[in-house]
Amino acid sequence: MLLPSLLGFLLQTTILFHKTKADSDAQSLYGTWSSKSNQVFTGPGFYDPVDELLIEPSLPGISYSFTEDGWFEEATYQVSGNPKDPTCPMASLIYQHGKYEILSNGTLILHPIEVDGRQLFSDPCNDDGISTYTRYNQTETFHSFSVQIDSYHGVWSLQLYQFDQSPMQPLYLAYKPPMMLPTETLNPTDTSNTVENTGTVDGASETGSLQKRSLRSMVKRSLENRHKTSARKIQKGFWSSSIFWYIASGMLGLGSILFLMA
Fold first, then answer.
1. Has residue 119 got a pLDDT over 90?
2. Would 101 be classed as within a structural domain?
3. Could you list the residue range(s) of the whole structural domain that residue 204 is in?
4. Which of 48, 132, 165, 215 reaches 20 to 30 Å from 96, CA-CA?
5. In DSSP terms, which residues pair with 23 in a beta bridge?
6. What is this structure's pTM?
């Protein structure tokens, strides 16, 4: 009875310590997180900024990616029922990216690049089969967040709490480094153009053309290298997580204690 009790105590203590450390560490957000469906991910597989296309995943879900230097990306595919006609569900695809900040009280705020956000909304019973495609810009504020090892799936999970402190569905670490599009303005307008304008119509057109070609080449490389990226997909499963390391360390420590007590 002594061995299982001590092993359980050591394991719970170690996981609790690591969870607390992760909760207070902004770097714990680093990576691409996806909801339970495991079909929605940020990156070029969800949004093509050259042709401005949102690509519908096979199942609904949400995904967030975070870099270590303060950039985020969001991909959302939501389907909601129509109470008047169950055969006409409404669907929405949303893409955003930009900068994020973590306040001293733990609040997480996402500041999207205004001109880059996109939404595709479908309401088949009212739009005659023609979905609505629009720009989208919504600053998101999360009261807090926590990162910990999910005891069932055995992988890192991200729990976001909305502004009213209600929990969102948990997200699971899917890629690390994150799977993301370039962290810069992807579709600049005249007022958000970050490249110096020559002051002439021809010059402006040339600048815009150069930007488009440059963006096209970046996205093309992202698509071509999608399976060559340094981002590694996280395999779910108990033994795939670092919890195996905790158990091994706990058993080693317990063995040392029992040896000294003998």
1. yes
2. yes
3. 26-237
4. 165
5. none
6. 0.70
